[in-house]
Structure formats: C-alpha cells, structure tokens
Amino acid sequence: MSFSQEEFSRIGSGRIHVVCSAQDGRVKALTVPAAIDQGRRLLCGLGRDSAERVDLLLLPHSPELFCLHLALVMDGHLPAILPWPTSRIDAEKYQRNLLHQLAGLPAARLLTLPQLAENLGPGLPFPVSSIPVEGQEAFQKGFGSKFTAVPPAGVEYSQEALKTLPEDALFLQFSGGTTGTQKCVVVTEKMLRNQLDRLRQTLHFSAADTVVSWLPMYHDMGLIACLWLPLWCGGTSVHMAAGDWLLAPEKLFQLTEQYRGTFCWLPNFAFSYLAQRREAMRGAWNLATMRGWINCSEPVRLPSMRGFVEAFSDWGVREDDVQASYAMAETVYAVTQTRLGVFPRVVARRLIEATGNGAERLEFSMPDETFVSSGELLPETKARIVDGHGLVRETGTTGEIQLQSPSSFAGYWGRDGFRTDCFTADGWLRTGDYGFLLENELYVIGRLKDLIIVGGQNVFPEDVE
C-alpha cells in the first residue's frame, strides 16, 4: 500500500459511529486506529496465512464488520463485503444460492457468524471461519443446523486468477445487489484515490463534514460515499442498520440532529418513503445542518424530491440542498454530481428524442412528465450516448450511456481473471443504462435491459411501480 503520509494522517483522524441498536440507542464510537486494532484482534487465532489475498465478509451490520474491513485493507489483504440477507429471504435458499455464487471465486477465506460457518464450510473450496458479534443469536435466527451444504457441480476452482490482481488492489465490491448475479469489481488504490479526490473537490467535503447513513456496506453507496469519503477527508460517519431505518425511518433524522449531519445519500424510493411516513413520526428534529440530501442509485424522480422537501421543510430541509448523482461500482462510485446549493435541472420529456428503441419519441405513461438531471460529470470523466446501431448521438438524444473515467475498473474479476467484454473496442465502458446528455449534464432514465416497448411506447418497470 502506498498511501502518502498525508493520506494516512487524514484517514487516521476519521471517526466512525456504528449504531448497534436503534431501539435502545447503543452506539459504538471508533477512531480509525482503534477500529483497525479491533479488527486485527478478531483475526488473530484464525490460522490465516499472511499471504492470503481475498477475504470474504458475510456479516450483519455491526462494529465488527467495519473493523474487519479496515484492518484487512490496511494489512494488504482484499476484503469483499457480501450482502447480508433480510428477514424476508428464505434462509436455506439464500445459503444454496450463495454456495453457487462463491464456489468459483478465488477467495482465501470466508468470515461469517458461527452458525453460517458451520453450514457453509462443507460446500466451499476455501476455509470458513467464525466471527462472533454482539447479538449474533438474533442475526442467526433462521439459519438452522439442518442445512446441508452440497458443493456445486462442475465448478472449476483455480488460484491462477489471483496472479491477475494488480499490486495496488485494496478491496473488492460487487455490482448486482442482493438478488442479481454478483459481478466482482477490484478497487485499486489508484481508482480509490482518483474517485475520492474528485468527489471531495466536487462536494467541497472537509474534515468538518459528517455523513449519516442507513445504507448497507455491501453497496458502493454505503461503502464509498458513506464510509471511505469521510475517512479520506478526516471526517465523521454515522451508520445505522437498513432494517432499523425501515422500521423507524425517523431515526435517520434523530441521528442527523444529534451528530449535526451534513451529507446523506439516499436512493430515490427513500425520499418518497420518508415523506409518506411523516405523519406517523413522533417528535421533531432540526435538519438545517444538512448540506446535501443526495438522490442516487435509482432513476431520479421529481415528485419524490419535491414531496420530501414539502414534508420536511418545517424541520429545516431546503429545496436547494436536495441533490442528485449517478454512480456505479464499476467506477468505484460517482460519475456525476449536481451543484450544491442549486436544485437539479429539469427538462420536459417531450423535448427529448428517442433513438434505436422502436419509437419516434419518448412517450412514457408516467406520473410526471419531466426528467431530472443527475448533474455534471466529475473532473476528467467523459460520457457519450450511443444508439442501437453503435452510432454516437448528439446532445438531447437518448441511447446507452458509455463512460470513460479515471476511476474506472479493469473488468469484472472471477475465477478466469478479468472479463473485459463490458468495454467497447475503443475503450468505453458500456453501462447498460439509458439516458441522454443536455447542456453538459447527464440524465438517466433507466436500465436498457428493463425497457419494455408496448404499442410503440417505451416503458420502464420503475415507472409502472
């Protein structure tokens, strides 16, 4: 690892607050050095080889998860945080799917709760170690001892892929969420530095800023925007569990007031959900410290953002502090960001021309008739719009969004090394997202693979929902 002394000093001054239980208010406050030390203590006695590269972390929201991630990164290993299941997912089906997804990944070890270690160990080609966490009985509920791990048939496991890893690789993150196929992204030191320096510059983020979050750490928005960005700047981050937020969304506001939060990243649905729950919230909180409520990871909808402002303006939410961003794991995180202090631009749907998808114009059956900007490209990032015939289109015309970024990955990594078929012959990343450029800002409509054409009209599932 070749972080400069200045970078190490900034990271070391960061502060992490992990809300262990939103119900009783227990919070674990950690400095970065203390978190690293605790992570190293957890790793002692596992019989690990110092040469191990990839360590998979399958753990619930807990201080141990944060400590292990940081300790492994700082000691030159590559941690990969896996999605923790929700209570609505069938435990046995989840475990079987996990075996198939992980059996061919060239990992050195899986670190998980004792019951899952017992269940999954027989089915994986690498060691599985137990990591106890506070309150693990509740987290393990549903993962009974009756589960029998059966190794997936026909999976070839090889260590050869490890030789393809860059020397400055820091950690892995996955593109695909909890239900999609997990595609592995190797984040290198160069990629992370390029991303965080540009995001810090764009947001004017400093050591005085505090991020408040309920986003899971297996998601790039939770890991990069809500943990690594404040650490990189010597700031503070506050993390509660996603399940706790869903049950009591007002806890996010309580933490914002308590820690004087200045940034909060949310998917679009969360803006609507919070507004819908306003009447059921007991209490009132001062949210005026917030500089950016940033809408990201889903297509941005104007009614969601406006509804959020209307619902909480009396608590200090200002329209100009509601922002938008376009991001993906393949570029570490952010691609675009709207300007702070200015509400995102909006353009009428009727003014935008569709291409290559069976329609002359975009005629969506939509609750709103506008597109919301995801902002300007981060410094040195390039975007182009390409139609179904591979032709680059002019501004104001829709098509696939393709990117070139200084924080872009080298391809999806797995048992065969890096897969680069996601790039064009001339070196542009095919995002699979559908949108357009207008006046130097990017507008994201949806995923191309999800596009449904009905009677010549373009319909996205998100719009129907």
Description:
With 465 residues, the protein is α/β, with parallel strands linked by helices. The protein has two domains: 153 residues, Rossmann fold (3-Layer(aba) Sandwich), CATH 3.40.50.12780; 197 residues, Rossmann fold (3-Layer(aba) Sandwich), CATH 3.40.50. The chain has 13 helices and 25 strands. The strands form eight sheets. A five-stranded mixed beta sheet has the order 11-12-13-14-17. It has a four-stranded mixed beta sheet with strand order 2-1-10-9, sandwiched between helices. The chain has a four-stranded parallel beta sheet with strand order 4-3-5-6. Helix 11 links the parallel strand 11 and strand 12. Helix 7 crosses helix 8 and helix 11 runs parallel beside helix 12. The longest helix is centred in the middle third of the chain and has 15 residues. The protein is globular, with a radius of gyration of 22 Å. The chain starts with a helix and ends with a helix. 45% of the residues are buried. About 5% of the residues have low confidence.
